[in-house]
Amino acid sequence: MIRLKHALIAIALFSFSHVNAQSPDTLWTDLYFTGSNEKMTVIKELDDGGYILGGSAIPAGQHDKDFFAVRLNEDGEFLWQATIGEVLWDEWCYDITILADGSYLLFGDSKSQATDDSNYYIANIDSSGELIY
Asked: What is the pTM of this model?
């Protein structure tokens, strides 16, 4: 009987909190599509309120995946995109670190389409999306 009473209280509390839960406010929504099979895996909020997104994409006219980064302002408006990769290698970006100089360090891995070799892959881009190394 005690177990049933505890179960009913738990269900009642869950039901009450679920009914009174409010949906979060949506600040903005948008669709960022360049026609190159993008897959975003990381998003970081920046000090200016904007965002940098990272993942992978297949650039137009190519057959291999590359690191893909997109910079948005605080309103979600598109500022720039960067595609970084090696020919005949697939690269996937899994994380981004924001450096003190305002550049971005993209981390991930790569896999050769020819030999199936795998490696870590790191790229550094400046605050405009230009490749540093």
From this structure: 0.75
pLDDT band at residue 64 under the 50/70/90 scheme: confident
The secondary structure of 50-75 as a DSSP string is -EEEEEEE--TT--S-EEEEEEE-TT
The span from the CA of 91 to the CA of 69, in Å, is 12
- Rounded Cα distance between 124 and 104, Å, is 6
- Other beta carbons within 10 angstroms of residue 89's beta carbon come to 19
- Confidence band for 36, pLDDT divided at 50, 70 and 90: low
Give me the long-range contacts of 68-74 (CB less than 8 A, separation at least 24): 68/36, 68/38, 68/40, 68/93, 69/93, 69/96, 69/104, 69/106, 69/125, 69/129, 70/32, 70/40, 71/129, 72/32, 73/48, 73/49, 74/48, 74/49, 74/50
